[in-house]
């Protein structure tokens, strides 16, 4: 009897201790993120000077635009491909050697160093095509990097759904594809969007893969809307330096620029805020659509 | 086959046969799950399938709308006819499932609104007009005896309903496709007694318009709702007769042992 009571008390003590430890770990992660963000934002604000938010040589608006445009282009490629690949892996692939091999490929792709993918992009999209550095090449390279994340989250999201959804749909005389489009994808959309946000984050932050693909220069003429012109902002086949690459450049070769440190600090702040805004909007939007479709209030 | 007691088939001739099964065998790979099943399921009646777990009653039910097509390694031989048309050889599975709907053991509404759940079947079959969909949704929910409970919350999530309501919603969703036969796979096993009795009343009401085949673990339920009852054991159909006769004068020793609770 006494032994039993001792055992219970011991279990309770361990439970309390573990709860405290877990809270501590969670708290320190939060603190770390908060301190880091605060540091970057404060340093960025202190580095402000008039003209930094311009399209001049010392401004970063062009790079900001390039970043958003490049992420947009890369999502245009990686989202349809990744979601379709995820659907294939979850719904169509049979458990066999080929599928296992595919899965290994996807996993290794996700752990390849981005500079390797960047050089691959340079080789295939720049050298072999004889093109100049361009945003499209950068976007394709970033899509290769983000494809595994989208594929895996889509597959996992669909697999996590109750089998009964598909059964019910099929029993109502739907085809497999109809069931996927009308029932499974909407039900999995929240998790898939998380994967897309992660993939987009990759695009925002990527530097190494863009070094030799999207290029390190930006010369835009904001009054030129001829899509084939080298200086037209919307021409996807022009060179376009992104913010993260700009930060790296300002800290290395670009340090000849008297403002280089301020530009780097301020760019870092803008980048952090942009990623935050992007995740927030994506989540709010997906919640809105979701609650409207399912009738559930969040 | 010769030892199956099928006195039901004698008086069948006059009555309307909806589903005719002849010498049906079903295999999961090498394993034979159904042995030589033959039975006639009558139109506008409730037919119950009873038997211990693993006896093949649910497997048999799934052959009737070809839901086991979705599983790998299933092979079937024999004859299965809906209104004299062979459902495996002469009919498309999608066509069949429009005519033979199914309600599952666990209520399985989609994570959509109540309205969208019921409208799902008509929509995938090409009905787009709102007025027409409204009409179908209301009619189906009325048939499932749940319209009054739900009419004010059609655009709320179906997942917020109680288990019993969800199951009646699933029945409404099945009816919205306007099937001729409704298969029910232990539809009340996850529900409380009050919801169960509502589903049973509903089944009784529905047989005026539909042919119903219900798998149940609950012998009292079979006795309460079914016109005919089939007893399955180890993949064989042991006895298939009028429910009252089967329960009062079981002709096979195994049936008697089962319904008196000696095993299963």
UniProtKB/TrEMBL annotation, chain A:
Q: Which Gene3D superfamilies does this UniProt record tie to the protein? A: MetI-like (1.10.3720.10)
Gene Ontology BP annotations: phosphate ion transmembrane transport
Note the CDD domains from the entry. TM_PBP2 (cd06261)
Annotated membrane topology is:
Multi-pass membrane protein
Cited SUPFAM superfamilies:
MetI-like (SSF161098)
Q: Name one GO cellular component term.
A: plasma membrane
Any one Pfam family here would be BPD_transp_1
Sequence intervals crossing the membrane:
21-42, 68-89, 101-125, 263-285
Alphabetically list the UniProt keywords: Cell membrane, Membrane, Transmembrane, Transmembrane helix, Transport
Query: In its keyword annotation, does this UniProt entry include Ribosomal protein?
Result: no
- Which superkingdom heads the taxonomic lineage of this protein's source? Bacteria
**Which cellular compartments is it found in?**
Cell membrane
> MF terms per GO, please?
phosphate transmembrane transporter activity
Q: Which family does it belong to?
A: Belongs to the binding-protein-dependent transport system permease family. CysTW subfamily.
Show the NCBIfam families listed in the entry. Answer: 3a0107s02c
Name of the molecule in the record: Phosphate transport system permease protein PstA
Species in which this protein is naturally found: Lachnospira pectinoschiza
From TrEMBL, chain B:
Q: Which GO terms describe its molecular function?
A: ATP binding; ATP hydrolysis activity; phosphate transmembrane transporter activity
Q: What is its main location?
A: membrane
* Localisation: Cell inner membrane
Q: Which GO terms describe its biological process?
A: phosphate ion transmembrane transport
Q: How does it sit in the membrane?
A: Peripheral membrane protein
Which UniProt keywords are listed? ATP-binding, Cell membrane, Membrane, Nucleotide-binding, Phosphate transport, Translocase, Transport
Q: Identify one Gene Ontology CC term for this UniProt entry.
A: plasma membrane
Please tell me whether the keyword Transport is annotated for this protein.
yes
The record's listing under InterPro entries reads:
AAA+_ATPase (IPR003593), ABC_transporter-like_ATP-bd (IPR003439), ABC_transporter-like_CS (IPR017871), P-loop_NTPase (IPR027417), PstB-like (IPR005670)
Tell me the PROSITE patterns matching this sequence: ABC_TRANSPORTER_1 (PS00211), ABC_TRANSPORTER_2 (PS50893)
* The keyword Translocase belongs to this UniProt entry's keyword annotation: yes
Q: Where is the ABC transporter domain?
A: 19-259
The UniProt function text for this chain reads: Part of the ABC transporter complex PstSACB involved in phosphate import. Responsible for energy coupling to the transport system.
What protein am I looking at? Phosphate ABC transporter ATP-binding protein, PhoT family
